[in-house]
């Protein structure tokens, strides 16, 4: 890891707190690929699906907890 | 100061997205596409978590952040469809048309959300304004579509 990146991470922790750093670590984990092309693709697909499903679950839980009966729809289905 | 923080977060994000590391060999177009696709899903997830945090901190009311949170849910649903198509490994002309329509929906709804003007509050998750986050999500969707078009839906 280069010194500039370390400085940027430290700045991010100071300014953004643990939540921003958590996002950075997550993205870093996606961006470090192994040698196996098929495994890399499979892992990336699984990561995308997991993140999307987590988002959908969180949205449903938050909407229900805050008294919203349905998602506020911006995308026509 | 605020601008500096936003610039830092944007630069860091761009630096990480642009920099895919591999232990050996070259990064293939399909690896790049699927990695950016995963980054997209994670960024959208972070927007959702950040919007929740903004409401929890009392910076905006639940009614004000509900459109943002709802939007991330809709984006995630649309993106699941895009990921399912990409996961097939080959994309037909019909698939590409479907993805183009989904990306267009994400972009148009994102622009509508930004133009609503109620989301210029900083997302503690990304340290950008939520408005900037939404714009980043829509831009990344366009980038993924461009990559997909460039590789012709192949591997």
List keywords for this structure.
heterodimer; A: 77 residues; mainly alpha; 2 domains; 3% strand; flat; B: 155 residues; Butyryl-CoA Dehydrogenase, subunit A, domain 3; 5 helices; 1% strand; disordered N terminus
How would you explain this protein's 3D organization?
The complex is a heterodimer of chains A (77) and B (155). With 77 residues, chain A is mainly α. Chain A has 2 domains: 1-32, no CATH class; 34-66. Helices cover 75% and strands 3% of the residues of chain A. Chain A has helices at 3-31, 37-65, and one strand at 32-33. The termini of chain A are far apart. Chain B has 155 residues and is mainly α. Chain B has one domain (2-150): Up-down Bundle (Butyryl-CoA Dehydrogenase, subunit A, domain 3). Chain B has helices at residues 2-18, 29-56, 62-87, 93-115, 130-150; one strand at 21-22. In chain B, helix 2 (29-56) runs antiparallel to helix 5. Chain B is globular. The termini of chain B are far apart. At the A-B interface, helix 1, strand 1 and helix 2 of A face helix 1, strand 1, helix 2, helix 3 and helix 4 of B.
């Amino acid at each position: 890891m280069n010194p500039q990146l370390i400085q940027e991470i430290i700045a991010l922790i100071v300014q953004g707190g643990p939540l921003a750093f958590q996002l950075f670590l997550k993205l870093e984990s996606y961006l470090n690929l192994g040698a196996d092309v098929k495994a890399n693709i499979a892992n990336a697909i699984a990561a995308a699906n997991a993140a999307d499903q987590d988002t959908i679950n969180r949205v449903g839980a938050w909407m229900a907890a805050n008294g919203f009966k349905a998602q506020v729809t911006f995308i026509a289905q | 100061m605020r601008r500096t923080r936003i610039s830092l977060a944007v630069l860091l994000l761009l630096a990480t997205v642009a920099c895919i590391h591999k232990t050996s060999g070259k990064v293939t177009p399909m690896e790049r596409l699927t990695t950016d696709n995963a980054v997209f899903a994670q960024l959208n997830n972070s927007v959702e978590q950040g919007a929740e945090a903004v409401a929890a901190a009392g910076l905006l009311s639940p009614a004000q952040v509900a459109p943002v949170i709802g939007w991330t849910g809709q984006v995630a649903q649309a993106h699941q469809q895009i990921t399912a198509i990409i996961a097939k490994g080959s994309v037909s002309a019909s698939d590409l048309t479907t993805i183009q329509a989904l990306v267009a929906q994400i972009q148009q709804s994102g622009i509508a959300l930004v133009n609503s003007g109620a989301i210029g509050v900083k997302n503690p998750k990304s340290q950008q304004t939520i408005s900037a986050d939404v714009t980043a999500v829509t831009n990344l969707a366009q980038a993924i579509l461009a990559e997909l078009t460039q590789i012709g839906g192949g591997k």
